[in-house]
Amino acid sequence: MVNLLFLQSTDAAADTANMAAQAAQGAVELKFWDLVLKGGWIMIPIFLLSIIAVYIFVERYYAIKRAAKIDDRFIDQIKDNIHNSRFDAALALCRNNDTPVARMIEKGVSRIGRPLNDVNTAIENVGNLEISKLEKGLPTLASVSGGAPMLGFLGTVMGMIQAFYDMSNAGSNVDVSLLSSGIYQAMVTTVAGLIVGIISYFAYNILVARVEKVVFKMEATTSEFMDLLHEPAK
């Protein structure tokens, strides 16, 4: 009797294991591209937005990283050249550094001899242009972070409309397989839109934070340069 119960429990465990293995095999067969195709045509703009977001993030990340590189000896060398009235050497040093800070200081050096308010205004104008260059593409990335989820929700609504339309045509012969297409589209587009939107949102904030760091360095260097111009008047 004990042996019979043991054999029955063993058979049940084996059946359960086989069912789990079959379910796992079926889950593996659910490939990524199958899900994408189930989303319908709305997946095309979502996919394009993801490419745009990745491109903007990578391109801006390295551009901002290059702009943030400032030689610690740069401002010291500028000070030495200005104190010794070597303005041409200071301008050449600025032109050899391809950074926003160097271009701002170059504009300031070229205005030496004019009223300090004019020098400060010229530096600020260049700084505003450099900040605009650094922020290029960020509004588009922000639009992607908000637009991708909206497209996903649009696909959800379209999928549910398709599902209810199929139900109305089927009448009393409603089948689960008949509704699967619309439900697939509704779920897949929502997930895809949210994934693209969330990644774009974090990417946007990362870039904004890095731009703010560069702006802080630009302002600190400008203040130091203007203090340098005030020194002879003391």
* Strand segment tally: 0
Nearest-integer average pLDDT: 78
Largest sheet: none
**What's the structural domain tally?**
1
Count of helix runs: 9
- What is the ordering of alpha helices and beta strands? HHHHHHHHH
The backbone outline, from C-alpha atoms, is rod-shaped
Low-confidence stretches: 1-17, 19-30
Coarse structural class: mainly alpha
Family: Belongs to the exbB/tolQ family.
Subcellular location: Cell membrane; Membrane
Transmembrane segments: 39-58, 141-163, 183-208
Keywords: Cell membrane, Membrane, Protein transport, Transmembrane, Transmembrane helix, Transport
Can you put this structure into words, describing what you see?
This protein is mostly helical and 234 residues long. The chain has one domain. It is 84% helix and 0% strand. The protein has nine helices and no strands.
Tell me the layout of helices and strands.
Blueprint lengths: L1 H27 L3 H7 L4 H25 L6 H10 L3 H9 L4 H11 L5 H19 L3 H33 L5 H55 L4
Helix pairs in contact: 3-8, 3-9, 4-5, 5-6, 6-7, 6-9, 7-9, 8-9
InterPro entries: ExbB/TolQ_transport, MotA_ExbB_proton_chnl
Pfam family, one: MotA_ExbB
Protein name: Biopolymer transporter ExbB
